[in-house]
Amino acid sequence: YVFFSARFSEPFADVRLLGDKQAVLTFAPDTETLTIAVGLSSVSAENARLNSVAEVPELDFDAVHARAAALWREALGDIVVEGGSRDEMVNFYTAQYHTKLTPNLMSDVNGEYRRHDQRIARMPQGGAYYSTFSLWDTFRAWNPLQTLVDTTLVNDMIRSMLDMYDITGELPIWPLASGETGTMIGYHAASVIADAYLKGIRGYDAEKALDAMIRSSNINKKGSDYYVAQGFIPSNIKRESVSCTLEYAYDDWAISRMAGAMGRDDVAREYAQRALNYANVFDGSTCFFRGRGTDGNWSEPFEEFATGRDYTEATPWHYRFFVPHDVNGLAGLFGSRAAFVRELDRLFTLESDEMQLDVSDVTGLMGQYAHGNEPSHHVVYLYTMIGQPAKTADKVREILTTLYHDQPDGLSGNEDVGQMSAWYVLSSLGFYQVEPAGGRYFFGSPLFDRAEVRVRDGVLTVTAHNNSAANKYIQAVKLNGKPYTKPYIAFDDIAAGGRLEFEMGAQPAVWYEL
Fold first, then answer.
1. Burial of 35 (C-beta count, 10 Å sphere; 0-12/13-18/19+)
2. Closest Cα to residue 306, out of 345, 362, 236?
3. Using CB atoms within 10 A of its CB, is residue 171 exposed (0-12), middle (13-18) or buried (19+)?
């Protein structure tokens, strides 16, 4: 439902209805300037009027423009960068802007909103109800970015998710306006909630949230019954079986971590075991994740360069490295660390005439890596996690400078409700959260000489000394003036504010201990 209310600076002389969805308004012939304010609501036309009057009390375009510009300056000011080229600055602030276009505020100025059962409810004073959660996309980087810059929004989003749960009995998957689309896979609201809880963002009923996460993990329509019973989803029963199995395993890890932090040890143990289910669809003979039938046999034919029914918007290559919560375990499945690194290297260089991309989402290709779609977004940072940060730096700088630009086609894939741009924002700062509910932001290669990030307890200043296109490799790291010997910075260290310094150079270096 979308209701509207329109106000005009001049009276209209006539109105003619064209069916029930269009109208033609006629104004006096001598009208030279016409200013129109339109309010929207999912509840009623009267609420749309209240919204319009509250947000635009005057029909003065210049005043509204100035107020909007001031609001955007404030919003974009939560991260300020210095030292890049003009094009890089345009790219960065465009990305910042994109990350702030959603979610959509669905509650009106009087607090009313339309719930998923279409009944009207009212938020308490100061509360806000949001929708448009593209969780399959955004749990990877957009949501972790919000935990750094807007904890109020994070709490409001989680309370909104729990309201949706109250109506439907399941946490949202891809809610839009006043309903659930059921689009995409996973139960990634679990990841978002666990990430927030583990970072101390807890303005909601945590016990209720954990119970909702557990219930949602067991009733997902895309095969969770098979997943729970036998540790994988049969490919002859459900489409996207491999992708679902892998993403469910990740979400189970997130549930396990939150349960452990809350003292629910039985739940933590159960879900830690479920988080290992990714291994059940790993074929050691090909070293790919593959579909399996109800008989346990591998699905045939296996086409590593083709999108197919076992994967979500992807080829087997794009999901080959999707175990962000257990990278060491994944490397072990390849037989050795060296074999894992070798295949990771091939991902970025391998070309094939056999590629069959039957979906439009596989874009931004570097070899078999597809930056234009979300399953690949964590992959370049795996090198840092296994002790080869120079390769992360190489790939991060290449992506930042070649797959984003300042023209209308400046993204290499669908923006996907801010995820593509959130990757750019975080990577430009020099770090990225590989395990979205892990609280660890792994280092890459900062693009700008200096950045200031407004965080929970003040400002985090990120400085990259001796930074340039050639000097893209981190040589050393300091946190608040002291040497820092980890490959990542923890959320609490970022949120505390302070000084994060990178010393950059032209030669690869390993400054940390694994």
1. middle
2. 362
3. buried
Could you give the CA distance from residue 505 to residue 289 in angstroms, rounded to a whole number?
A: 38
Token duo for residue 132: 């448009």
Q: Which amino acid is at 215?
A: R
pLDDT in tens, 236-295: 999 999 999 999 999 999 999 999 999 999 999 999 999 999 999 999 999 999 999 999
As a whole number of angstroms, the distance between CA 196 and CA 209 comes to: 11
The set of residues, in sequence order, having a beta carbon less than 8 Å from that of 142 and lying 6+ positions away, is: 99, 417, 418, 419, 422
Q: Which two tokens stand for residue 180?
A: 């659930």
Q: State the amino acid at position 185 in one-letter form.
A: I
d(CA 26, CA 32): 13
Q: What is the pLDDT of residues 323-378, one digit of tens each?
A: 999 999 999 999 999 999 999 999 999 999 888 898 899 999 999 999 999 999 99
Structure tokens at 64: 């509204």
Integer CA distances (angstroms), 49 to 16, 46, 119, 294, 457, in order: 21, 5, 20, 57, 38
Category of 118 on φ-ψ map: left (φ > 0), alpha (ψ -120 to 50) or beta: left
The answer to whether 220 and 245 have CB atoms below 8 angstroms apart is no
Distance CA 380, CA 395 (A): 6
3-state secondary structure at position 385: helix
Half-sphere exposure of 502 (CA within 13 A, CB side): 32
Closest listed residue to residue 474, CA positions, set 382, 401, 377, 394: 394
What is the spatial distance between Cα 364 and Cα 367, in angstroms, rounded to a whole number?
Answer: 10
State the amino acid at position 326 in one-letter form.
D
Number of other residues whose CB lies within 10 A of the CB of residue 38: 12
Secondary structure E strands in 328-466: 365-366, 369-370, 431-432, 440-443, 450-455, 458-465
Place of tokens 């996460």: 213
Cα distances (Å, whole numbers) of residue 376 to 301, 323, 395, 499: 24, 11, 12, 30
Q: What angle do CA 223, 210, 254 make, to 5 degrees?
A: 65
